[in-house]
């Protein structure tokens, strides 16, 4: 009886773990989405693929007072810098004939 309970417990654990994980957030899928969004110019999609820690917790990230008083949104700042980097990468890729 104990063997049957152990077997069923392991089976249920495996079933729950399999059900909890989807293929949508594997590193390969996220990387592919990031590259496609970047080279199509979709900054929002590219930013969504990034993990930016602690921005949802007030006070967890140091923001200089001069930026706070001017009402600068840090996410917009990151997106603007990301757009500059992506534009340069796209231009370089086009000069070199694309991605292999």
Describe the fold and architecture.
The chain is mainly α. Helix content is 67%, strand content 0%. It contains five helices and no strands. Helix 2 runs antiparallel to helix 3. The longest helix is centred in the last third of the chain and has 22 residues, at 74-95. The protein is flat. The termini are far apart. The relative contact order is 0.10. The model has no long low-confidence stretch (mean pLDDT 76).
Explain briefly what this protein structure is.
The protein is an all-alpha fold. The chain has helices spanning 2-20, 27-40, 43-49, 65-69, 74-95.
Question: What distinguishing features does this structure have?
Answer:
single chain; about 100 residues; mainly alpha; about 0% strand; flat
Sheet of most strands: none
Which spans of ≥5 residues are poorly predicted at pLDDT below 50? Answer: none
- Overall geometry comes to flat
What gyration radius follows from the Cα positions, in whole Å? 22 Å
Binned strand content? under 5%
Please tally the β strands and state the result: 0
Report how far apart the termini are: 58 Å
Number of helices: 5
Structural class: mainly alpha
Give the topology string: H per helix, E per strand. Answer: HHHHH
Q: What is the arithmetic mean of pLDDT?
A: 76
Percent helix among the residues? 55-70%
